Amino acid sequence: MILPPKVIHPTGEPEFTLKKSVISALIADTFNGKIHIEWDPQAQVTTMGQLAFFIQYLKIGHRFMPWVEECPLRYTSPNAPKKINVLGSFVLSILAGYTRYAHITRIQGDCVNAPLLGMTKVVGEDSARNALKAIEENAGVSWLQKHLYQSYSPLLELPWILDVDVTVKTLYGHQEGATVGYNHHKPGRPSHTFHTYMIANVRLILDVEVQAGNRSSSAYTAPGLWTLLDRIPRAHWPAFIRGDSDWGSDTIMSEAEQRGVDYLFKLKKSPLVKKLIHQYHCKSGWVKTHAGFEAFATELKLITWKTARRVVIVRRRLGKDRAQAPSNALLHQFSLVEPAEDLSAFEYSVLVTSLDAEVITIVQHYRDRADCENNFDEIKNQWGWCGFVTQKLAPCRLIARMIALIYNWWSLFVRLVEAEKHFEAIVSRPLLLNGVGKQTQHAGQTTLTITSSHGRESYVKAAYTRVCAFFDELKAIAPQLTPLQCWYRILSEAMKKYLKGVVLKPPNLISFES
Fold it and tell me: Is the distance from CB of 193 to CB of 212 less than 8 angstroms?
């Protein structure tokens, strides 16, 4: 006879629980009838289906992995996230157009692109913030400056122009360096200032420094400028430096003259500058430049200047609705002598330069500086310079340079796809990055199927076919090339319109002095 097993613990009163019904689908009543909606959290899909082409570009160009390996991020805890997971999460979030650390959560379920970058997972927002705090600032700045320099250094072999300017980032919390300064967007609001150095006309960032909101003048930008020039070999210095009216000071111009670099700045309308305008208002010899502008070249020596310098007076006749009537108009009607043209009917500006060029060329050079504002608009509003804020200033300085680096990488990649013009992120992301990608595996082969709803899908297919053909040719000879030579080949192809057929040839040795 087999006895029943002895009960060690009594069962007690049974618990009655309601069974939860498993909802497999939801029904939405639309204008096209009812539709059944289901979730599949296990599906390997991504909203950035075309990112694989950009990842291939980073791999063949040797951009991403050296950047990760040289990062001075060090953890002491064995439970800390991997360095590649942290930096890869920043790359994915910045490319997606996010502007807050909290937005990283949106891509934590991306199980397609993260492995393509060599990552095991996308880290959370707290891990991303803490990672920047764990990087020693000086080491982090040197690391990012080095890779910024490597992204554009081959292009410095050709004549180029260095644009310097400052933009304001309005702040609303309690951040280090958030002080009230010049802020034309939100007067009276605390802000940070981004002191930026750019390659003119190709929209590439050389470097950026984040400072307090009350440090917006050129006196705070100039030290970074001279340090940047010291890091660049003398043979690759710009043809000249270009800046607005805040740069027309004797200190900056004297420093540029001692270093042997030319400059083109705008002058503030001080009393002596206004006197100069009155002096030449009625003189002959004005040269017509373009679109109703005319210019006159002369010399000027302000009280604060140590020497006289070449200046170019530029003016444009205002429209009838903007011109002001002269106060002595009635006297002119009875005058037997034809009066001089009224000064208020013209708009004046004065440029100071060390360039020995024609007046028309100088005026056009300064007109081209307007592209600098377009660059600020793109990188602030479309790339996250207006976001990614922490209470400490050091992480803000690191993330600003990180955004600039990824912006440079993406801009050059877009040029590789379309060399004729620069596409801003608001155009290039939907066109070349976004698209539903579904990854499948069969017989040891991984396939990524992309579905794009963009109206220019056929153009994108043809463009990426050309890019892949170029990379196939490059991979065939890649074993014979160094990483630097591969990057030179990629830049020669991407910037062929800017280079006008010139093929960049890497030197035997190129160094970066940090």
Answer: yes
